[in-house]
User: Fold this.
Amino acid sequence: MDVFTALTLALTLVPSPSASRAADGAAAAPLDPTVLALLSIFGGAALAVLGGLFGAWIQGRREHARWVRERRFDAYVCATRFADQWRYLRKTGNGIMAELGDDDLTDERRQTLNARLDDYLSNATTLREEISDAVAPLEILGPSHVLDAFNKMTETFALDDDETTTSANEAFILAVRTTLSVKG
Assistant:
């Protein structure tokens, strides 16, 4: 039993002179000043505690929402950086392959292009290994429509169609801005 309940119970069990007069039919007297003071103190303290708990609950929700928003922002930046690197790498690889298809290449130029192709393949392998770092936060932090937009954008990479990729990238950025409540 807490102190407030014990005090209230003790005060109700103690007969007051006004209670005996009320039983005799006389008008009830106001509360004893000591009881009134105690009730005011403990009532005010209870309201202060409840107000503090409510404020802490609201603050906790705000902090969590801010944390999620910051982590989502970081995840979206990482995914966007990955997509930009992949598009650049694809264009580089396509350019190298187009030049290698030329029959009029000198041996020196062919060796240079083969070295660039080796670098390209190494970078592509590294980037392919990093896709999980870009996608995992999107899967965990959501929402699913952003992950869907990202997946649709990455599916366009194999098409070698800049217009389709640009359109899918714009849809991804729009989904990100909507989720982060970015105006404009």
Observations:
- The helical segments are 3-13, 17-23, 33-100, 107-141, 144-155, 162-180.
